[in-house]
Amino acid sequence: EIVLTQSPATLSLSPGERATLSCRASQSDSSYLAWYQQKPGQAPRLIIYDTSNRATGIPARFSGSGSGTDFTLTISSLEAADFAVYYCQLRSTWPPFPFGQGTRLEIK
Amino acid sequence: DVQLVASGGALVQPGGSLRLSCAASGFTFSAYSFNWVRQAPGKGLEWVSYISGRSQTIYYSDSVRGRFIISRDNAENSLFLQMDSLRVEDTAVYYCTRDGAGGIPPFWGQGTLVTVSS
Q1: What is the count of residue pairs from A and B with beta carbons less than 8 Å apart?
Q2: pLDDT, tens digit, for every residue of B9-44?
Q3: Residues 52-81 of A with CB under 8 A from B
């Protein structure tokens, strides 16, 4: 069973700064990595799928990268609307299809 | 527009049963696999179950295997989750999601709240 570990748990930054969120898998798999943004009381919103593809309507300041066991979500210049909780999920070959525990991106 | 509308959430006593539904529209339902994902209050996301397009492949998380049954009706464009022997720890918002892999982005609907309490 693959376990996803996100770091840091909380990231405190100011608008305009660059955010780098990490997601590490306990083992490599021929699988697909997605990133979600969630705000209080809302369903998760897809940001990145297949490691590096931006979902429809997602601004270019969001980018995803990585391979093997190490994946990264980068937000190049933070805007007020970006402060939220971010989850990664691995659509692995075999179940379960794990989520990371989340990174809370908060305003410094 | 693509839509997934989950329903059926309610307050139920421990040991009780509930059936969740998810109505899909805006795409060819039978061509896609689906998942149920849940989120307990104040907690993270947890994958629950998966079903392939023709129901030939079904998976469950360890936490629900033997108690929950996922199913679908392709003629009615609907996904279901039969939940039996419910526990307090099953309390969560349940989301139905269209599976994403290999160039196909996943899609999520709004969730439905299940509360298990006496």
Answers
A1: 63
A2: 999 999 999 999 999 999 999 999 999 999 999 999
A3: 53, 55-56
| Residue count (chain A) | 108
* Mutate: best of B1, B47, B96, B112, partner A, most A CBs <10 A: B47
> Which has the closest alpha carbon to B100: A15, A23, A67, A56?
A56
Of B44, B62, B100, the CB nearest to A49: B100
Closest C-alpha to B50, from B25, B75, B77, B79:
B79
Tell me the pLDDT tens digit for each residue of B42-71.
Answer: 999 999 999 999 999 999 999 999 999 999
